[in-house]
UniProtKB/TrEMBL annotation:
Annotated source species: Anabas testudineus (Climbing perch)
Function summary: Catalyzes the attachment of alanine to tRNA(Ala) in a two-step reaction: alanine is first activated by ATP to form Ala-AMP and then transferred to the acceptor end of tRNA(Ala). Also edits incorrectly charged tRNA(Ala) via its editing domain.
Subunit structure: Monomer. Interacts with ANKRD16; the interaction is direct.
Transmembrane domains' residue ranges: none
Domain of life according to the entry: Eukaryota
UniProt-recorded name of the protein: Alanine--tRNA ligase
Amino acid sequence: PGLPAARVRSTFLDFFREKHGHLLVPSSPVRPRGDPSLLFVNAGMNQFKPIFLGRADPRSEMASYRRVVNSQKCVRAGGKHNDLEDVGRDVYHHTFFEMLGNWSFGDYFKEEACSMAWSLLTEHYGIPADRLYVSYFSGDAESGLTADEETRQIWLDIGVPPKRLLPFGLKENFWEMGDTGPCGPCTEIHYDHVGGRDASSLVNTDGPDVVEIWNLVFMQYNRDVDRSLLLLPQFSVDTGMGLERLVSVLQGKQSNYDTDLFTPLLHAIHQRSGVGPYSGRTGADLGKVDTAYRVVADHIRTLSVCIADGVHPGMSGAEYVHQSAVRSESSANQLSDQRPPPISCQIRVLCQSAVRSESSIMDVINENEAQFLSSLQQGTRLIHRTLNRMDNKHEVFPGSVAWSLHRDLGFPLDLVDLMLEERGVRVDHQELDRLMAENQKVASELQSGVRSQVTLDVVSLAELHGAGVPHTDDSLKYRYTLD
Ligand code: ATP
Ligand code: MG
Ligand code: MG
Ligand code: MG
């Protein structure tokens, strides 16, 4: 029940476009263009950075932008905004998410931005006002920044009661893109999933009950390399609302994973892994398997989008992709029990194939995984045989066996480590490194030779990438056939 995600998105875009004269611009790819200060696009404003700084090429279309709306594909894994550690452990941080945003470049400012946001949420989406809390910037003496009383007054005039208007400092209410770049005080809207109580003490406390949904940033400064704040040539508005969080509100779900953006994916993972279904539990003890489900679902989305947008391991995203592959593997182990970890191979293969394929996403994904899976099975048996033969006191796994797993079977070495870790055993890395060094040439060939049979269908993502604008019902529709 509730508004489907695609309608949530289109309602946002239409509101600003049709009712308030904003120009709809496409999402940029998640790989930043010409901005070395960023690993991934982490907010809707990234592509407009030159406008904020007053550096847009006057001949470019961008130079004429005054009011703009879009839905931006964002990745927060690395850099200033890195949510990798939260993903899966909570139900509202993803490494990939869509950010709905509206902008004013030297056009409207605080008052209009706040009243449009309030009207959209409470009148158009019909969210009860008594579930919403608003935070504003309380100032920071050290930086010489005063409290944003103007914004507080605007919210009071709109009708937000004083007890639901909360001041916060730099960390929460002064938005910065990265270590340098445009920044400014912000005001944020938070939603109480429970209701019928005073939840003001729960705002910005990292719990699942009261969640930040929309950030309205008033861009006034540029953070310089020496950390100083310089006034921007013109004041602008930059807003960002997480689509997944808004959808969870409008579908009456506490968890983003219980919305139509994720349930088909979780279902597919269930069918493929053969483990009990995703049960929606959170928390360390209850939710081990569920956490694994969430991590795998999250990372599949991210890797798909990254590959669609041309982020390949070995480029800027390598570190992330590597980390997520490892995390997915350990998560997938939770899902797979005795059997070779199915999801993990797929994610790993997505990464590894991407290393050598610059062609279409489907080429990247439609590899023959059968060989890889059987290698994994053989490798797992070899690991168990070796462990059984090992002296109990002997904690070091022979480097030569690890090497042969890698060389002969293409078995990922970090997976060997992970599997052994569970038994409290570690690989003899000294011996392994020596063998690797001796066989540099073989090793580099192996790197590029790993095969997969992933049938993860990301055609629609490819289309999204091509079309640029995620505003149709089909955009970001994941069709997974995980076997
Ligand atoms: P949080 O405090 O929850 O980490 P944030 O303050 O870091 O969020 P902003 O930089 O203000 O987030 O981004 C604007 C909006 O984007 C947030 O209000 C939220 O709705 C959404 N958002 C931010 N990070 C994520 C994420 N990792 N996954 C999903 N949505 C996100
Ligand atoms: Mg954050
Ligand atoms: Mg926040
Ligand atoms: Mg925020």
